[in-house]
Amino acid sequence: MTLPAPDRHTAELSAAFVELRTALGRVLVGQDDAATGLTLALLAEQHAYLEGPPGCGKSELAAALAALSGARTHTLVFHRDIRETDLLGDVLLSRHRHRGFERLRRELIPGPLLHAEVALLEDLPRSPGEALGPLLRILAERHALGQALPLESAVATGPLEQVEAPIDPLEPGQLDRFAVQLRLTGLLTGELFDEAAVLLARTSARRAAPATDRSGKGATREFPEGHTALTAPVMSTAIRKAAQRTAAALRIEPRTLDAYHRLLDRLRQRSADQSASGDRLMSDRSFSSAALRLVRAHAFLRGAPAAAPRDLGAIRYMVAHRLPDEVQEDFDHILEELLGDPPNVTMAEAGAQMPGAQNQGDDDSDPGAAVSQASDSWIDDQADLPAPPALFGQPPPPAQVDPLLRALVGRIERGRIDPDTDPGGQPRGYRPLRDLDELIDADVIEALLFTEGRLPGAPRTFERKRRSAGGAVAVLRDISASMAGRLTVWSSQVVLGILRVAARRRMRVGYVEFHHRALPHHVGGRLLHRSYSRLAEQAGQAKAVGQTNYEAPLRTALEGLRGGSGRNRHVVLLTDGLPIIGDTSVRRERQLARRLGVALHTVFLGNGDCPPVLDDISAETGGLRFCGRPLTGGGLRLEER
Q1: What is the fold, at CATH topology level, of the domain defined by 399-415+469-640?
Q2: Which of 23, 371, 419, 631 could serve as a FRET partner for 13 with CA atoms 20 to 30 Å apart?
Q3: In the prediction, which pLDDT does 471 show?
Q4: What does the domain layout of the chain look like in residue ranges?
Q5: In what order do the strands lie in the sheet with 472-478?
Q6: Mean of the per-residue pLDDT values for the chain?
């Protein structure tokens, strides 16, 4: 059944929140999930909890949400001496005489927190119990002093849970007051090196903004570039409240409710398997109420007339403290298995024609790429991929790429399951100290004895491990002259299949076409990204010309993968012939791949003999070896060499 499209007013309301999310993404680089989660929290009128190490931008992002939304705001910084009166307001004592008696009346004057529409709660875990209890009750009931509060959303921040932390973390029952729970990581810890470079470039660029001192004379004040523009409100109070009412009234399709219950059952089962404490999804009543509101909000942002099963992806912003870490990392994969396919969002559904919904892609892209930007919207990077190109105006002959994709998926899933050493992972044991930089993560007593020279050896430090979530794959496609005709079409089909595999697992993808030179396709200055639809469009426009060079594309891909860590990094090389330019044995590139732990998979297309160097490349790096042979009736069959 085809649902009616939303009216123009609804589309404008949705576009306002799309603009809010885009503005949040510009304020804080590399925290896209946190920006999306906060946008959904405000739209669904739910509370949010941001957790992360110092300096990752928790407070800045929360303050930006309040400023950009145009809401009435109050910020409260918690400490161990905070009192209940600091939350509720000032206490006024009045004395009255009546018939020879004196009566003292205690009257509470409501403070700014009770008038706020968005409350910012800094360092909430530092609050003492006598203040935290009343605050959480107010957040849950949204009533105080016998009257309803205008509170729409409260955004609390807190540090990461640490073994030797000076403060106690919030208990699960206290965290359950916050529907949206987001865990931020540092850019370097999260391996977001491109985003870190952008942040360094932004902070180093300063502009002088005119200001007026008390004497009325002009003065000069230094601001980060774009600071004023980044925090200017993007919507009015009337638009914000109208959007919240419209999103709350959005219909949920029956199949979405069925998928929601099946998803919860699967998450509970996985939680019981992974955690000795079993199910950590807290209260079914409070969780389900908030989850369905977030699902409606996600559908509203897409401009959809009703919430579809794909909108269940919004639940991923609620599980930071409700699911074990292992289940959180697999949430997208669990949802994908439940729905059969990844939740795709087409350009029309993403609101490509809505006011303010354009230009949601990378900031430095050209205006003519508006269609691609809409399809690469932040709402869902897994946009529908185009069909393979035609051959002489006819439908392309089929390429049987499933054997390659199944083998590649097996390697990827192996990398996702096996935990790997990672400085940002969870402590899983102890190991000897290797570098003085690790002293901060060492056993406290042994570190103290070591610094005093009373420890015979090196202190123990935590061995941190993390399962590889996502990963990266670089596709190197030969477009030399010998690849013309059917081989061009077949290689496009192989590329599209790899892109679908990567999209379903939210892997970063790099795409490099090569002949005598390497032609990498960057998005926003990055080789590795998640703009799958742009790469798919580019794969369908390849022109065969030139000669073959393996060295340049391999070096380009490995340099792009150099900054990452973990085993879940792959390079797929598609070619049909021997290299005749550059180092034909690519010895340096093979050594670099082994040192980086990158698997080089090779796919040879055509009827000729496979070059021995391809076998050497795969054998030395633990990669797959496939060949594609044309079938007599047309088409291509891929099989292991």
Answers
A1: Rossmann fold (3.40.50)
A2: 371
A3: 75
A4: 8-80+117-203, 250-339, 399-415+469-640, 427-467
A5: 399-400, 636-640, 625-630, 599-605, 569-575, 472-478, 508-514, 518-520
A6: 76
